[in-house]
Amino acid sequence: MDYDIIICFEIHAELNTESKLFCGCFTKPGAPPNSHVCPVCTGHPGTLPVLNRKAVEHCIRAGLAFNCKINRHARFARKNYFYPDLPKGYQISQYELPLCEDGEFEIEGDDGVPYPVGIKRIHLEEDAGKLVHSTKSFDESRYSLVDYNRSGVPLIEIVSDHTRNPIRSLSEAKRYLEKVRQVLQYIEASQCIIEEGQFRCDVNISLRPKGYEGYLERSEIKNMASFRAIMDALTYEIKRQAEIIESGGELTQETRLYDEEKGITIPMRGKEDAPDYRYFPEPDLVELEISQELINRIRAEMPELPRFKAERLVREYHISQTEASLLTKQRKVSDFFEQSFTYCKDSKKLASWIIKELFKLLNEHSVAIEDCPIAPKHFGRLIAMISQGQLTEPIGRIVLDEMFQTGKSPEIIIQEKDLKPIQQDDVLTQLVEEVIRENPSAIDKVRQGDTQPINFLIGQIMRKTGGKADPHKVRKLLSVKLLS
Ligand SMILES: [Zn+2]
Predict the structure, then answer these.
(1) First vs last Cα of the chain: how many Å apart?
(2) What digits encode the pLDDT tens for the residues 117-172?
């Protein structure tokens, strides 16, 4: 049987704020357990929340990036449930009147056509604490500890729609997640460091036989923190649900957990619906009035989003689409490219050296572009020298490597390491004559009309000079000698 696949995500991203959503505690990850806590974020009776303005602005910024309608009038709600990592016994979230609704977010569909994934809502909420079990397996744990540093950290939840342009395949799901993460990083709403738990999601999936208009029961897989695990869990679920449909069984709406070691999903509980959480308007916070001025200011300050930036790079710098999309994957990389361009007008060479050489160095040394020791102006000046033939590519690589190690300028490294190209005609002519003397058989071939050995001869000269000879000059001198 052929199926439509219907996938939607609830993505949680931790916002880039110094302090928590409703108190002044720091949000920095990696602090000793329970060192960033206070009576508000540990839910002491009698305390009152005070809303973090910056978090609201980040949420609006995300809403604009996802083409949502920004609600001028928004409301917080209590979501009631009991769990040890939630000391208040409720989470302050949004239910009716979220900050952002009815958006769309364009990805490339599997058919290569742009596909606007429906975004149902983006709302603001607080994170819960973190439970640490005494062993990896929850069932075998003798005890669990709880760290409230994360309790009250601001999150946005981005909910995609399952009726309006849902995600239709695993590959679209992967592209969607990658692009959402990229855009949140571009607008600096979240760093989205997956290893730190700053970008996590729940995913809903259901199948329906092709041609069928309704919806079958869907399952939700909770708390997924790696793209790989999400893809594996979805692959498993598609197979599991198809088998149930084909054997005439009945699907139930449920929440499942993905067991990474076994590669299967297991039922956790019947999926809760809104009534289970007994949502009601948060009585400790006034309703939010968002002014048009605030929305306008945030809109005016929005950075150029990756899709538009990639289009502009192709247009302005005449680089290929593939190069532009690689350079715009991270905002800091595209900034690096544009800053280097001030010092080197050969945009194609600049792009290719970033993609081939700089990325390689960053990877090898596990350095993020933000911490790249090479200044864009030094990089630009190096590539300009290569582009103008003042430096050969192999020497350029040596200089780049040294720049990465030391942070020095290319000019200083060339001087210190004595890498200055050999351009003096008399020195090069002497080398050419030497090589001609040493390779009589190659010379005979050239004189008989075979041009092939010329490259071999140039290679010999480059070897003698440690790659420092200017290859264009060598070729010219060699031709003159051989043809005279
Ligand atoms: Zn606190």
Answers:
(1) 77
(2) 999 999 999 999 998 888 877 778 899 999 999 999 999 999 999 999 999 999 99
Q: Say how many C-beta atoms besides its own lie within 10 A of residue 154's C-beta.
A: 26
Which neighbouring-strand residues pair with 6? 206
pLDDT bracket for residue 484 (50, 70, 90): low
- How many angstroms separate the CA atoms of 172 and 166, rounded? 10
Ligand 1 centroid from CA 226, angstroms = 28
**CA geometry: angle at 338 spanning 334 and 339, to 5°?**
115
Q: Which helix (H) or strand (E) holds 289?
A: strand 288-289
Read off the tokens for 216: 């079958």
| Among candidate residues 58, 102, 55, 87, the one with its CA nearest the CA of residue 285 | 55
Fold of 425-483: Arc Repressor Mutant, subunit A (1.10.10)
d(CA 449, CA 199): 65
What is the Å distance from ligand 1's center to 96 Cα?
26
d(CA 55, CA 184): 13
Distance 35 CA to ligand 1 centre (A): 10
